[in-house]
Amino acid sequence: MSDVLALPIFKQEDSSLPSENETKHPPFQYVLCAATSPAVKLHDETLTYLNQGQSYEIRMLDNRKIGDLPEVSGKTVKSIIRVVFHDRRLQYTEHQQLEGWKWNRPGDRLLDLDIPLSVGIIDPRTNPAQLNTVEFLWDPSKRTSAFIQVHCISTEFTPRKHGGEKGVPFRIQIDTFKENENGEYTDHLHSASCQIKVFKPKGADRKQKTDREKMEKRTPQEKEKYQPSYETTILTEMRLEPIIEDAVEHEQKKSSKRTLPADYGDSLAKRGSCSPWPDNAYVNNSPTTTPAFTPTQHSTYSVPDSNSSSPNHQGEVIAQGSGEVSCFCFLFFSIIL
Fold first, then answer.
1. Which of 45, 70, 185, 189 is within CB 3.0–4.6 Å of 78 for a Cys-Cys bond?
2. Residue 317: which residues within 8 A CB-CB, separation 6 or more?
3. In terms of CATH architecture, what is 14-336?
4. Domain ranges, ordered by start, for the chain
5. Rounded to 5 degrees, what are φ and ψ at 240?
6. Cα diameter, the chain
7. Which residues, listed in sequence order, are joined to residue 78 by a DSSP beta bridge?
């Protein structure tokens, strides 16, 4: 990624937010159906443990007030889901880290959509050149759930001397765009993310149990310093902070903008099961700016509003965008010659 966001600004409770934020209302809310760790201090961001390769539901919720973003009503928006590094040290070397992972795991992806389980997503796509990214269209007025699978584990990006629970944290990041006058989804609407760690199968359940047992042994006074374990993980809003870098380095990375949280939210559950859909839940928000993203043309394939999709649809993803830099270079050199 070529850009990194501002550091998180965490707040203990919604009531402490400044009054000016009360007039700002995030248009969307994304809820990951997985429980947060109970071993997180009050002023820290929530942390959620996931099992490698397991399908987890992300609920895509329309959080607009009446009259907000009328241009989106009755239309679809595009959401891009990514798994990115939480630590800045790894953010600056993300391209190299992912290339190394690709070399060790040929043919595998860091992130996949479980299309048969997903509901309401339209034209889901993956790009072979972006192993940590999936995208799709969805109608905010309809029930939409995207089931994702994370295939990398946190310890794959740590030195060999580390292991077990010493794995690096990741972020699940969602950026949503609306259609512009040319029919391209480039107008940024909203971004949010949450912090996760990924374990080998069943490892997340064991880690959650270990954290819970540790908290049970603490005194009541010590417990007051920690957050409860929320049943679901609410992705929190982010703002963009551009990073100026060498043009050559940017060309080598060939990556899009990065976002990190502006504040923290709540979070849930086991194995992708979720409590009933919330009618409306508040999420802290902060200013966002339009990130650079290359639009693509979309086919008419969609996932129906049920889980009756055929597993064969998983292969119906379309690569896009990977040849744009080479096309530009070709035109550039053609002009010179």
1. 185
2. 124, 125, 126
3. Sandwich (2.60)
4. 14-336
5. -95, 140
6. 75
7. 137, 177
> Counting every residue, how long is the chain?
337
In this prediction, residues 171-194 reach a mean pLDDT of 94
249, HSE (Cβ side, Cα atoms, 13 Å): 11
Can you tell me whether residue 324 is helix, strand or coil?
A: helix
Encoded amino acid at 180, one letter: N
- Between CA 203 and CA 213, with CA 207 as vertex, the angle to 5 degrees is 145
pLDDT digits (tens, 9 = 90+) for 17-40: 444 444 467 899 999 999 999 999
Identify which of 111, 5, 120, 105 has the alpha carbon closest to the alpha carbon of residue 62.
120
DSSP 84: E
pLDDT of residue 240: 52
CA distance 285 to 21: 7
Q: Which residues contact 32 (CB under 8 A, 6 or more apart)?
A: 48, 56, 57, 58, 172, 194, 232, 233, 234, 235, 267, 268
pTM summary value: 0.67
- The whole-angstrom separation of Cα 16 and Cα 18 is 6
DSSP, collapsed to helix, strand or coil, labels residue 144 as strand
How far lies 24's CA from each of 27, 216, 288, in Å?
9, 38, 12
